[in-house]
Specification:
The chain is of the alpha+beta class. The chain is built from 18 helices and 33 strands. Helix 3 packs parallel to helix 5.
Length: 728
């Protein structure tokens, strides 16, 4: 792109500057497209929003000292141009440099999946999201409306969908839910259409359908009553493929859906459909025999084809997740590739269209430590393996906002700022993009969004760390490293890392109010950022039992990214290698047995390397303190994440001994944490206020052994995750 770049995200395809400036004061407001006389001769807006990519969205904006001229071949092109004008007006400064912007989208499909089923999103949030999408030149809102945990679309012929399927009873007994009336849906569709955004509804089938089955049990293979799911995951009860009632239901739902949504494309899910029930169901087996299918995978394919035929008869097109490739693709299906890009490659090679949204770049429900903005920015929906001709089938991409862990009030923080990177990946041609240059535009853009009231989350976690207890010197060191690519991109800027082990506290799990602005002692300045690639901090001595080290990167004096927080417990077991009856799983060794006694506490991410995991086994650990010690408190923390099959132990027994042979039981401690809590829990099992002398401490934590009956992993081995043994 020609320098200097304009304050626009996504960057335009072409910018040719000329002499002079347009004073912003000359333009009072940016008109919505309906009010532009110039649009009078163009096709109606309805025609343009049925199918993304149908309309030519290109526009040309000429900026002169005395005015601006916006031209386009379509209303949507004009609208995209108005958003460019709006961003130029919103940027700092009183004037806009003169020149010509010639712009067009790199991809016809530029979308966001919004999951309103796991968490119900009010209309106000949906409209705000649509505004933000429009501002960044997206053109698809993929509205995920049905799930195991809730059905959100009112369908008059099936009232139990809104009476029963729209509500779930949470672990604490409260009812959670909501749904959209036909009027709500029409409002959303119209609001999006005014911004030239197509709303593509997703009605999931044959899997992820527990909520509908809870309302109408006859739709499942077993016909047995079920509750609307409260857990996250993949569930075995799915629509019965052998039962005509299933298709009667789905066709009625889809007929109503088609009535509400003008979109040519209808998403039918198709992902994550376990075949267990079909395997055991006489009706499904009869269907397999009658249709001469090779098994349950072909039955899934048959199911999708049947729905596809129905949609085709109604002049609509089917989209499904990449699982619809299994057992043979329906003739006119579009594939949305999420398990990497393999699905898109396979679809394109078979001559089918594809939408690309791999977990590696597009799953914005992942936190920024897993998917940061730089990784998003490397997204290229066009697989290199495909020929130019095959690549014609790649319509574009989507960012996926699955909402298991995203209630509406957190949505914006997960969307921003990463969606700005996605906007540019889908609009601006690859060879015109540069991450460092993008970052230059991003900073003022984010400042503007914040000033406009947008709740912007972190862009990434730039500081990586490794904390270790060194046995020889009995010290704790924290090795910090800056993400080198980010650091490279930030050359010429003033970078500093600020650290202090500020938060000393009396109980574990302390959550300080992290006011990073206060973190001024002692700043570690880095005139050459690369010097700080491996910065080692020795943990200051502490006489309090627990403390937190907090590290924050500052760029040009502003906090950047999420702070790094390491929690330590200074205690008698620190550095004492425990003896384990059952070793931790090789998948989650937590850095070896010593990690249970290295003083460093696991975070809310059970993959952080501090937690050790025991599959199907109890944890039985013995710590030798070296000599008889006065003990006042013993504790150990466990993790629960039901979605990951990790449960708190039912009980934890604490024993002590002077000789390692004769053991005295101190306490058997249970807990009142429900295993079905949807959130992650860290629980501290402790014997408090004791007064004894002992050399050995033994902890026996009784695993549930198997996942509970109601859990998707019912009967299979569950996990116990432990960190850290603390003896005071
Ligand atoms: C998906 O993430 N199951 C499409
Ligand atoms: Zn069946």
């Amino acid at each position: 792109m020609t320098s200097p770049s304009l304050p626009l995200i996504p960057a335009p395809q072409s910018w040719t500057p000329s002499i002079g400036f347009f004073p912003k004061a000359h333009l009072q407001s940016v008109p919505l497209i309906q009010n532009l006389d110039a649009a009078a001769d163009l096709p109606s807006p309805e025609e343009e929003i049925l199918e993304p990519g149908l309309a030519d969205e290109s526009y040309r904006l000429v900026i002169r000292p005395d005015g601006m001229e916006l031209t386009a071949h379509s209303r949507s092109g004009l609208f995209r141009g108005t958003q460019t004008v709006q961003q130029l007006m919103d940027a700092a400064g009183d004037s806009i440099p003169c020149g010509i912007i010639e712009d067009f989208p790199g991809f016809a499909w530029r979308g966001m999946l919004l999951d309103c089923a796991r968490h119900f999103m009010p209309l106000s949030v949906i409209k705000e999201t649509i505004d933000q999408l429009a501002y960044h030149k997206f053109n698809v809102l993929h509205w995920h409306l049905t799930e195991d945990q809730g059905w959100r679309l009112e369908v008059p012929a099936y009232p139990r969908l809104t009476e029963v399927a729209a509500w779930r009873t949470q672990w604490d007994g409260t009812r959670y839910g909501g749904y959209y009336t036909s009027e709500d849906v029409r409002e959303v569709v119209a609001y999006a259409a005014e911004r030239f955004i197509t709303v593509v509804p997703e009605i999931e089938l044959p899997g992820h359908s527990v909520a509908a089955i809870a309302a109408y049990p006859e739709l499942s293979c077993t016909g047995l009553p079920l509750e609307v799911e409260t857990q996250w995951g993949v569930f075995k009860d799915v629509y019965c493929a052998g039962n005509e009632k299933t298709f009667e239901f789905l066709e009625a739902v889809l007929t109503h859906t088609l009535d509400l949504f003008p979109s040519h494309y209808i998403h039918i899910g198709g992902d994550e459909c376990p075949k267990d029930r079909w395997h055991a169901c006489p009706k499904c087996q009869k269907r397999i025999a009658q249709e001469d299918l090779a098994g349950e995978h072909e039955l899934q394919s048959w199911f999708i084809r049947r729905i596809e035929t129905f949609l085709k008869e109604n002049d609509r097109r089917l989209i499904g997740w990449d699982e619809i490739l299994e057992g043979g693709l329906a003739p006119s299906a579009t594939v949305q590739s999420w398990r990497g890009i393999r699905g898109a490659i396979a679809a394109a090679r078979q001559g089918h269209d594809a939408i690309v949204s791999p977990t590696s770049h597009c799953y914005f429900d992942y936190d920024v430590a897993t998917l940061d903005i730089r990784q998003v920015y490397t997204f290229n929906p066009r697989p290199e393996k495909l020929t130019d001709e095959e690549n014609q089938h790649i319509l574009g991409g989507e960012m996926n906002l699955w909402s298991e862990y995203i209630p509406p009030e957190r949505l914006s923080k997960m969307v921003f700022p990463r969606m700005t990177a996605m906007a540019e990946c889908l609009w601006t041609d690859n060879e015109k993009r540069s991450f460092p240059e993008f970052l230059q535009r991003l900073r003022p853009h984010v400042e503007f969004l914040k000033s406009a009231g947008v709740n912007v989350g972190p862009a990434d976690q730039p500081v990586n760390y490794k904390a270790e207890f060194l046995e020889d010197s009995a010290t704790t060191v924290v090795k910090l490293s800056l993400d080198s690519e980010l650091v490279k991109a930030m050359r010429g800027h003033d970078l500093d890392l600020r650290q202090r082990a500020i938060f000393r506290h009396e109980t574990p799990g302390y959550q300080p109010d992290l006011r990073v602005e206060d973190m001024v002692l002692p700043p570690v300045r880095m005139s050459d950022p690369l010097v700080a690639k491996n910065l080692i901090m020795v943990w200051p001595d502490s006489d309090t039992p627990w403390d937190l080290m907090v590290v924050q990167l500052f760029i040009d004096g502003l906090a950047y990214g999420t702070p790094t927080v390491v929690e330590r417990s200074h205690n008698l077991a620190m550095g004492r290698q425990p003896q384990l009856l059952h070793q931790a799983s090789s998948r989650y060794p937590g850095g070896g047995a010593l990690s249970l006694c290295n003083g460093l506490l696991g975070t809310r991410n059970f993959r952080d390397g501090f937690w050790s995991g025991y599959e199907g086994n109890d944890l039985n650990a013995t710590v030798d303190l070296g000599e008889n010690k006065k003990i006042t408190r013993i504790s150990i923390r466990f993790y629960q994440g039901a979605t990951a099959w990790i449960f708190l132990p039912s009980t934890v027994e604490f024993q002590v001994s002077n000789n390692g042979l004769d053991w005295e039981s101190m306490a058997l401690i249970g807990h009142d944490v429900s295993p079905s809590i949807q959130d992650r829990v860290i629980y501290d099992f402790a014997v408090e206020d004791v007064s004894l002398q002992a050399r050995y401490v033994r902890i026996i934590a009784n695993s549930l052994g198997h996942c509970p009956d109601w859990h998707p992993g019912a009967g299979r081995d569950c996990w116990v995750f432990a960190d850290e043994i603390v003896v005071q």
